[in-house]
């Protein structure tokens, strides 16, 4: 009987300790959220690689829960695709896509190098 009573007491102590730990974690997490400052950043970049034909770029800015930006790239068919987007805390991600042909665009040509390797017929033992 002592063994069964001890198991019940240990189980209750474990449950109380687990509940206390959970409440402390929730309080700590809530406390951290209150002290985060407002988010604010801006960045941009542009890539133009004549060797590979990779042309793309992006710019974005954020202040608090408002984010806006755009990115662009040159598709394989010679069209420039530009995606303009914005996000606010309530509406989610909203984007508009525009495609326009690039006048005079020529895709980079792939260069294939062929190397001749001599082939020996016959076996020497």
UniProtKB/TrEMBL annotation:
UniProt lists compositionally biased (Basic and acidic residues) regions at 48-66
What residue ranges are annotated as transmembrane? none
- Source taxon at top rank: Eukaryota
Segments of this protein annotated with the region Disordered: 48-68
Signal sequence coordinates: 1-18
Concerning InterPro entries, the annotation shows: Insect_cuticle (IPR000618), Insect_Cuticle_Struc_Prot (IPR051217)
Pfam families membership: Chitin_bind_4
Keywords assigned: Cuticle, Signal
Q: Which named protein is this? A: Pupal cuticle protein
């Amino acid at each position: 009987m002592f063994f069964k009573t001890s198991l019940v007491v240990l189980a209750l102590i474990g449950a109380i300790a687990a509940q206390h730990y959970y409440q402390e974690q929730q309080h700590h997490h809530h406390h951290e959220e209150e002290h985060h400052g407002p988010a604010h950043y801006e960045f941009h970049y542009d890539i133009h690689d004549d060797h590979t034909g990779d042309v793309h770029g992006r710019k974005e800015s954020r202040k608090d829960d408002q984010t806006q930006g755009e990115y662009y790239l040159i598709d394989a068919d010679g069209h420039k695709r530009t995606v303009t987007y914005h996000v606010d805390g309530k509406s989610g991600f909203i984007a508009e896509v525009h495609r326009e042909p690039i006048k005079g665009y020529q895709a980079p040509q792939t260069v294939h190098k062929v190397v001749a390797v001599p082939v020996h017929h016959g076996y020497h033992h």
